[in-house]
Write a structure and sequence with these properties.
With 257 residues, the chain is of the alpha/beta class. The protein has two domains: 164 residues, Rossmann fold, CATH 3.40.50; 80 residues, no CATH class. The chain is built from 13 helices and six strands. A six-stranded parallel beta sheet has the order 3-2-1-4-5-6, with helices on both faces. Helix 2 packs across helix 4 and helix 2 packs across helix 6.
Length: 257
């Protein structure tokens, strides 16, 4: 991690992605999202789905995620599906009480980091506002971060999901500046925060950070999921092994300020 103590000392607002930043999961979990998307497509659009083998729908979900960063996009492009509806539908299915997400945590299939609460506690003691900012749904993030998940939701000032901004489908793409602009509006007003040097964002997808930099946000890319140097790494002001490394640096910088 390069020496970033000076800009860090001014940061008092942090947006944190959830999946692959806090919530680390394997290929089985990821595949379940593709299966859930295919299932929702078949339920919501049976007249289209009947023409395809179910496994072909799953493959479309996988291809969609690889191309667009979400499992639903190709169903909208190819079949005219209302993407936000499809997106919420398959997340809601996964987030049912005692559903797949709950079972993953209950069966301890997802790692819980024991060091993270202490770091978040120190940040809150330093009056740092922390906001979850995910391209999952708000309910998904609340469950993952909540008492049946990582048990850290109380550290977050707000938890923002893809559906926290109304039915606008442009909000589905975190690479779109509209998305980060809406998040800034929600947490404190973009005109108060943009170019203030007070805001940082941690996201595991380097391409998502490009739009954030256009708002003057300090961008952090954790490499835990990216075993090799990622594309678009220039979008990151800082590259760290894990989100905890950024939190530690921020805590130290604010102590020295």
């Amino acid at each position: 991690m390069k020496d970033i103590s000076t800009p860090l000392s001014a940061i008092d607002t942090v947006l944190v992605d959830v999946d692959h930043v806090i919530n680390h999961y394997g290929s089985g979990f990821a595949r379940q999202f593709s299966v859930a998307t295919a299932t929702s497509f078949c339920e919501l659009y049976p007249e289209n789905a009947i023409r395809y083998d179910f496994e072909d729908c799953v493959k479309t979900s996988v291809q969609s995620y690889a191309q667009f960063g979400r499992t639903t996009a190709l169903f909208a492009h190819r079949h005219g599906a209302q993407e936000m509806h499809l997106y919420k539908h398959h997340h809601d299915a996964l987030c049912e009480d005692d559903g797949y997400i709950h079972r993953q945590f209950r069966q301890k299939r997802i790692e819980i980091d024991p060091d993270l609460p202490a770091l978040l506690d120190q940040l809150k003691e330093q009056d740092v506002d922390i906001h979850a900012f995910t391209n999952g749904t708000q309910r998904y993030a609340e469950i993952v971060l909540g008492d049946r998940g990582h048990r850290i939701s109380h550290y977050f000032n707000t938890i923002l999901g893809i559906d926290s901004f109304g039915p606008n489908e442009t909000m589905l793409d975190k690479r779109n500046p509209t998305h980060i602009g809406a998040a800034l509006d929600r947490i404190g007003g973009r005109f108060a925060l943009a170019d203030s040097g007070r805001v940082a964002i941690v996201d595991d997808t380097a391409v998502n950070l490009g739009a954030c930099r256009s708002f003057g946000i300090y961008t952090v890319l954790p490499l835990r999921r990216n075993r090799c140097t990622p594309q678009n790494k220039d979008n990151a002001d800082s590259i760290v092994p894990d989100v905890k490394d950024f939190f530690k640096a921020l805590i130290s910088a604010r102590k020295l300020a």
